[in-house]
Design goal:
Length: 128
């Protein structure tokens, strides 16, 4: 196989994959439940509504956030109560960090857990 053919194949495969992901992510309705947990997509600037589960998010928060934002209050990080940041901004913040707040990759906090922790943050009056 020539290098040119290989390159073409790689491009075709790439296009196919993107097409599959796009199709897989659409429609389907409510049934299935766990469809947000599929990896691969970058949700860090996803503007959509919070779909997570606050009870599950409490554990994520305890593990990754409470050290600097104890009970949503000020510690190393600022108090989180009644902030008006959009979910997309906080998704971005969690994935990329800011100042002394570290970034959390999907290997630490999965996309699903990130949605859960966002849902938990609404308990502090965030996003309202
Ligand atoms: C090592 C300490 C630390 C940890 C762990 C941490 N944060 Fe932060 N956080 C900070 C600091 C410091 C800031 C202020 C950042 C700045 O000044 O720009 C901050 C800011 C924030 C803000 C406000 C951002 C804004 O601009 O309005 C939110 C919301 C937040 N953190 C949520 C979280 C969540 C959710 C987690 C867990 C996934 C978490 N933090 C983990 C230190 C931390």
């Amino acid at each position: 196989m020539t290098g040119k053919t290989k390159g073409l194949l790689a491009i075709l495969t790439g296009v196919l994959c993107v097409g599959l992901i796009a199709c897989g992510g659409e429609g389907g309705g409510e049934e299935g439940g766990e469809e947000h947990s599929s990896g691969g997509e970058d949700l860090s600037m996803y503007e959509g509504p919070i779909t997570g589960d606050a009870a599950a998010g409490e554990t994520v928060y305890a593990n990754f956030c409470a050290g600097c934002h104890p009970d949503g209050g000020a510690g190393v990080g600022p108090d989180l109560h009644d902030r008006t940041d959009s979910p997309a901004e906080i998704r971005y913040l969690i994935r990329n960090g800011e100042d002394r707040m570290p970034a959390f990759g999907a290997d630490q906090i999965s996309d699903e857990d990130m949605e859960n922790v966002l849902a938990y943050l609404t308990n502090f009056g965030m996003f309202q």
